[in-house]
Amino acid sequence: MGVLVVSGPTAVGKGTVVSALRAAHPEVAVSVSATTRAPRPGEVNGQHYFFVTDEQFDQLVADDGLLEWALVHGTHRYGTPRQPVVDALARQHPVVLEIDLQGARQVRETMPDAQQVFLAPPSWDELVSRLRGRGTETEEQMARRLRTARQELAAQSEFDVTVVNDTVEHSVEQLVHLLGL
Questions:
Q1: Bridge-partner residues for 30, per DSSP?
Q2: What pLDDT is attached to residue 48?
Q3: Domain map of the chain by residue range?
Q4: Contact criterion met (CB below 8 Å) for 159 and 105
């Protein structure tokens, strides 16, 4: 049992797959990120994110309290608090970190034993379709995300394993296998 890093391009379905994994295997600890952005309607502090001030985030960074962190889309900072991961491992629970490429690279340095999984789309066209289907971004935001996605896809070889997210069920099955559950 250990840490499984799940990363991949925008709109590949990381959140959906990790949520389905957690529903099927509640013993798996899924990290909750800290963020400096304000909560969206329905989001609960400590469940969806730890909502912190810029000063609190600065303190986490200064105290080495984050496994990884990044400024996302040039606006808000996000990071993975270290202590909940350490606590879950001490309780013998496998831990999943659902993070972006930049975060995965940092975790490779801070936790070199973590297994790195790249969640890939079945095709570029399917990734574009998923992003458009969300209906949450403007055309300009989608264009920026797709440029980023091309860069993220190019980093696939940096990961230990690639899981193609053709269906949520198939992806969860593969993650369960990798976690040894």
A1: 96
A2: 87
A3: 3-179
A4: no
Model pLDDT for residues 99-156, shown as the tens digit of each residue: 989 899 999 999 999 999 999 999 999 988 888 877 777 888 888 888 889 999 999 9
Return d(Cα 169, Cα 24) in angstroms, integer. 10
**To 10 degrees, the CA torsion angle through 161, 128, 73, 7?**
-10
Contact between 122 and 55 (Cβ < 8 Å): no
Q: Which residues contact 22 (CB under 8 A, 6 or more apart)?
A: 28, 30, 96
Mean pLDDT of the chain: 92
pTM assigned to the model: 0.88
pLDDT at 136: 72
Q: C-alpha dihedral over 165, 87, 80, 18, to 10 degrees?
A: 20
Buried b or exposed e, range 89-117, using 16+ CB within 10 angstroms: beeeebbbbbbbbbbbbbbbeebeebebb
Architecture of domain 3-179: 3-Layer(aba) Sandwich (3.40)
Secondary structure letter of residue 64 according to DSSP: T
Sheet holding 115-120, edge to edge: 29-30, 95-98, 3-7, 115-120, 161-164
